[in-house]
């Protein structure tokens, strides 16, 4: 939340202060590196249009299950961990939960240790039993209110999807193996 919201109240709001407020919110999101719900995001700055803020967010974040998550390229991790992070984000978009052991197995080729994997996932996910899931509940309304933002985020993610497809496909294939279902 902005420290000095009163500067944005009333008719004296200007484009400059709106842009400054948007920049401050985006910078805060970037520095905190934690997912944020769109309603909370939009309530943090009063602009004449949410499009300004959402457009700015698209430059540094992806929409995952209706919530904003920092793009891996801006995360503080080495390249292999950023790749693993992208795999996890794509899988969380496609699936509700991720099996911890299966995820470790699929990502082992990247040389990501268990501690680093857990540290990276804790930025945007939490553990429930033997599963990882998004920290925030799905925002199912976001897609109907801002379909163009979802399309833009999905379009940006397409290149990432192509890069991490072998890992995503391996996870999904292994998840479908009957003996793995029994072992869970």
Question: Could you please describe the fold and organization of this structure?
Answer:
By secondary structure, the protein is mainly α. It has one domain. Helices cover 57% and strands 11% of the residues. It has helices at 15-32, 38-43, 50-58, 79-94, 100-107, 114-121, 142-145, 147-176, 178-183; strands at 36-37, 61-64, 67-70, 97-99, 125-128, 131-134.
What secondary-structure arrangement, pairings included, does this model have?
Blueprint: H1 15-32, E1 36-37, H2 38-43, H3 50-58, E2 61-64, E3 67-70, H4 79-94, E4 97-99, H5 100-107, H6 114-121, E5 125-128, E6 131-134, H7 142-145, H8 147-176, H9 178-183
Radius of gyration: 18 Å
Relative strand content: 5-15%
Total number of strands: 6
The whole-number mean of residue pLDDT values reads 85
Order of helices and strands: HEHHEEHEHHEEHHH
What are the low-pLDDT stretches, counting only 5+ consecutive residues below 50? 1-16
Compute the number of helices. 9
Q: Distance between the terminal alpha carbons, to the nearest Å? A: 41 Å
């Amino acid at each position: 939340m902005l420290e000095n919201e009163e500067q944005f109240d009333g008719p004296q709001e200007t484009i400059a202060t709106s842009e400054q407020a948007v920049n401050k919110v985006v910078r805060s999101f970037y520095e905190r590196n934690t997912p944020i719900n769109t309603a909370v995001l939009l309530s943090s700055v009063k602009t004449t249009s949410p499009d300004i803020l959402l457009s700015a967010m698209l430059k540094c974040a992806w929409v995952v299950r209706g919530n904003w998550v920092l793009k891996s390229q801006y995360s503080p991790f080495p390249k292999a961990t950023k790749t693993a992070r992208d795999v996890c984000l794509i899988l969380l978009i496609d699936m509700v939960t991720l099996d911890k052991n299966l995820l470790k197995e699929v990502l082992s080729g990247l040389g990501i240790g268990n501690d680093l994997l857990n540290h990276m996932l804790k930025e945007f996910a939490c553990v429930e039993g033997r599963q990882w899931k998004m920290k925030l509940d799905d925002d199912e309304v976001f897609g109907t209110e801002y379909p163009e933002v979802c399309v833009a985020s999905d379009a940006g993610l397409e290149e990432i999807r192509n890069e991490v497809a072998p890992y995503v496909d391996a996870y999904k294939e292994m998840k479908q193996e009957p003996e793995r279902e029994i072992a869970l």
